[in-house]
Amino acid sequence: MPHCNIAHERQAENIALREKKKGEFITSEDVSSLKYTNMVVEETLRMANTSGTVFRIATRDVEYKGYKFPQGWRVIPWLRYSHTNPEYFEDPLRFNPDRWNVPAKPGTYQAFGGGPRICPGNMFAKMIAAIFIHHLTVGYKWDLVNPDAKIDYLPHPKPSDLAEVTFSRL
Fold it and tell me: Which terms does the record give in the GO molecular function aspect (predicted)?
C-alpha cells in the first residue's frame, strides 16, 4: 500500500472524530474507535520495537532445530527476528497497517512481551501513541522531506535521513 493511502485513511478517520467531538476532549472510547490509527500504532511497534530482546530461562529441556538446550539455559530471544519473519508476516519489511485486520499468530508479535510477563502499561502506551497521532493529524500538516529514504535496520529500524519532517499548523 503506498504511503499516501496510509496517510489519507489515517487522516480521514481522525478528522471525522474531530468533527464528531466539536472541540470536546477525546475519550478512551473515542481512541478505541480509531481502528485504522490503532493499526498504524501496532504496525509501528512491530517494525520498530523499543525492546530488542527479552531474557528467559528454560524451565525444561528443549530441542530446537537439532540443538538441545537443558533446563536452566538462558535464552535471549531477539524480538525483531519474529516481528520481521516472513513465516509470520507477509512482506515483513513493508509498513502495512492493514495486516492488523487479522490478529498476529500467538507468540509472533511481542512488542510488550507476552504471557505473565507482558508489560502492564502496554494498553496505556498504545492509547497515548494513538492520541499523539490524532492530535498530530488534526492539528498539523506534515510531510516527510524524503519519503523514499532508505531504511537502516540495525540496531533498530530507522530512516537513513532520521525521518526529517516539515510541520505547519492547520
Answer: heme binding; iron ion binding; monooxygenase activity; oxidoreductase activity, acting on paired donors, with incorporation or reduction of molecular oxygen
The Cα-based distances of 73 to 17, 57, 66 in angstroms read 50, 6, 16
Question: Cα dist. 124→35, 80, 97, 112 in Å?
Answer: 16, 22, 20, 11
Question: Do residues 148 and 51 touch, judged by C-beta distance below 8 A?
Answer: no
Q: Radius of gyration of the chain from Cα atoms?
A: 19
Domains identified in the chain, total number: 1
- Structural domain including 67 reads 3-169
Short-list 120, 122, 116, 113, CA closest to 82: 113
Place of cell 499516501: 4
- How do residues 61-110 score in pLDDT, each as one tens digit? 989 889 898 999 898 888 888 899 999 999 998 999 999 999 999 989 98
Could you tell me if 146 and 166 are in contact, meaning their C-beta atoms sit under 8 angstroms apart? no
CA distance linking residue 48 with residue 13, whole number of Å? 23
pLDDT-derived band of residue 123, with 50, 70 and 90 as boundaries?
very high
Q: What is the CATH number of the domain that holds 133?
A: 1.10.630.10
